[in-house]
Amino acid sequence: MKIWDKMTMNFTFIAIASLWIKTYIVYKYNFDIKIENSTEEFILFINPLSFLMIVIGAGILLTEKPQKIYVITATFIISFILFANAVYYREFSDFITIPLLMQFSNLGDLQSSVGELVNFRDFFYFSDVLLLILLAVKHPRFLTSVKLKRTSAAVFYFSAGALVFFNLGLSETQRPELLTRTFDREILVKNIGTYHFHVYDAYLQTKANAQRALADGNQLTEIENYTRAHYKAPNEQLFGTAKGKNIIVISMESTQNFVIGETVNGQEITPFLNEFIKESYYFDEFYHQTGQGKTSDSEFLLDNSLYPLGRGAVFFTHSGNKYMSLAAKLKENFYYTANLHANNKSFWNRDVVYKNFGYDRFYSMTDYEITDENSVGWGMKDAEFFKQSIDHLKEMPKPFYAKLITLTNHFPFHLNEEDKLIDEYNSLSGTLNRYFPTVRYTDEALRLFVDHLKKEGLYEDSIIIIYGDHYGISENHNRSMAQFLGREITPFESVQLQRVPLIVHIPGHEGQAISAVTGQIDLRPTVLNLAGIDSKSDIQFGTDIFSAEQDQFVVLRDGSFISKEYVYTKGTCYEKKTGEETSGANCEHYYDQAKQELYYSDRVIYGDLLRFYGNQ
Ligand code: GP9
Ligand code: MN
Questions:
Q1: Residue 155 and residue 143: Cα distance in Å, rounded?
Q2: What are the pLDDT digits (tens) for 250-296?
Q3: C-alpha of residue 442 to centroid of ligand 2, in Å
Q4: Torsion over CA of 571, 470, 595 and 354, rounded to 10 degrees?
Q5: Is it the case that residue 452 has pLDDT exceeding 60?
């Protein structure tokens, strides 16, 4: 008898091994996880194993038939979770969290995006499930599926437990305080693995739920002291310049700052904005600070000057909290407040949140005449949206504060032929190629809008603030992006790409380009100061972008930060001017402040602390 005739393999173990290898392959080919040394690579390799031993391994406690059924089912579910993460990652370079799964009302609108992200090669994700079914049915000679003896099972589970601790210990050497101080999911997944990450996420979910119940007013006092200590006096020349004027805020979908002043195939991408900037204040170091809530997170930042959450969209998870919104404050000061966005009103839970923020009116899908002809991709085309919005603006009591949210420049960036004013780019990323014509389209829509405002006599009476809501091109397209920019996309460069345009147009003011490190969190105090409304004692984490005392320090939601001189991301400190790595000591002081801010802001939201404001 030959030796291999005597060798047998256990069904459960085959399942564990194949899922383990598959997960590692997905790590390497679908997720873009940056590995800095061989220890990290080793951690990445072993990190799925303990989870799979614990969960799939339960099969060894069962007799033959139940074992096969259990193992196949568990393998399928885990494969599906891996697959869902992979698809989500393709667009968002991020992993799924529990609060994201609760956003059912957004799913319908995501269809066009999902179609773009799935392809037939994804069959690979389920190949081992098929293999297991085949083995279960065919019973090859080398296969056993006997129940393991108690002692063997105990040894097996003890090894799995030991492996968890070994993994955590090793990770801690690479990344101290991994589970307590990490806001970056990529670092978490790199260390504890995608499966344990979901377990950890479930723990965070439970903790977040408990936080509100345990909160009290004293927690707010500490935070209030912090925000007051960081208050910066407004710019005297600009304080109150917008008093009595309308405030028109335009959130530009997926528009990053790198397109401004740039060309593609020799054609300008944003000819209108390039001109408009010359007669406006233009901030070229303004960052988006959004997380998984994308557009809604940028709106949250604007209205509250609080950070959005590290997990999920705060518009969904904490829509009922007490807030000190910009809208409510402007309303107190006799502004009519409105949101205009030609999408389903419940998308991002906007209808509920806007009401809670105190907006007078939300002009949504039903307030627009939307037809097949005037729609593309996600919905109504921007030019038509702006055109019909003019009628709404005209009918509003003055002065008004109106936020308009564009839509056409949204992934997957589809556009009708007749709207393509410039050619697509030519790279391996269809997404990046299509991005330029859609940005160009929105730019043209803005030109028409401003023309309309002029015609209707609204222009001279309004200040116009235009900003990009978040990135449009995720890190998934780095190679093509590098081709476009003509330089490698390092982690430093990735942070630079989180800059979005900020343009503030005040009638009668000359244009000025301002290179100050600022972010969306600064919008609330800025708007209030322009309107001549004091917000010194409000709980807000931003500062007026025009203030002479601006500290030029911006924290991104994943814990990365930018100061006047340094950029910190993924555990490395960089010199901002050169992009060169520099000693971590240079970033240390800011590192603590960044963590502190995110921590305080999270506490305000999770504890619903603003309900205690004024009566601590
Ligand atoms: C949907 C629009 C897009 O109404 O704001 O949302 P996003 O996917 O960019 O968050
Ligand atoms: Mn958006």
A1: 21
A2: 999 999 999 999 999 999 999 999 999 999 999 999 999 999 999 99
A3: 13
A4: -160
A5: yes
Res. 385: pLDDT tops 60: yes
Is the CB of 343 inside a 6 Å radius of any atom of ligand 1?
yes
pLDDT at 111: 66
The SS3 call for residue 574 is strand
Pocket of ligand 1, candidates 299, 378, 413: which has the most ligand atoms within 8 Å of its Cβ, to mutate?
Answer: 378
**Residue environment code for 457-492, b if the CB has 16+ CB neighbours within 10 A, otherwise e:** ebbeebbbbbbbbbbbbbbbbbebbebbeeeebbbb
- Cα separations in angstroms, 64 against 52, 67, 78, 170: 19, 5, 21, 37
Distance CA 134, CA 137 (A): 5
Q: Report which DSSP code applies to 147.
A: P
Report how far residue 91's alpha carbon sits from residue 84's, in angstroms, rounded to the nearest whole number.
12
Reported confidence tier of residue 399, pLDDT bands at 50, 70, 90: very high
What protein residues have CB closer than 5 angstroms to ion ligand 2?
A: 253, 294-295, 469
Judged against a pLDDT cut of 60, whether residue 1 lies above it is answered with no
Distance 616 CA to ligand 1 centre (A): 37
How many separate helices (H) and strands (E) can be counted in the chain?
A: 22, 21
CATH no. of 218-611:
3.40.720.10
Q: Select from 174, 189, 170, 214 the least CA-distant residue to 86.
A: 189
Nearest ligand (C-alpha, residue 296) = 1
Ligand nearest to the CA of 297: 1
The active-site residue, picked from 255, 295, 406, 442, is: 295
255 part of the active site: no
Distance CA 96, CA 105 (A): 16
pLDDT computed for residue 142 by the predictor: 84
* pLDDT tens-digit map of 470-520: 999 999 899 999 999 999 999 999 999 999 999 999 999 999 999 999 999
- Say what the pTM is: 0.86
Q: Would you say residue 108 has pLDDT above 70?
A: no
Q: Residues with Cβ < 8 Å from 552, sequence gap 6 or more? A: 516, 517, 518, 563, 564
Q: Work out the end-to-end distance of the chain between its first and last CA atoms, rounded to an integer number of angstroms.
A: 82
* Alpha-carbon distances, residue 75 vs 33, 119, 499 (angstroms): 24, 21, 41
Domain boundaries, the chain: 3-210, 218-611
Give residue for tokens 């690479």: 174
Whether the CB of 405 sits within 6 Å of ligand 1: yes
Does residue 410's CB lie within 6 angstroms of at least one atom of ligand 1?
Answer: yes
Helix axes 430-455, 271-278, angle to 10 degrees: 50
Q: How far is the centre of ligand 1, averaged over its atoms, from the C-alpha of 230 (Å)?
A: 32
Quickly list H helices, 242-381: 271-278, 294-304, 314-317, 326-332, 350-357
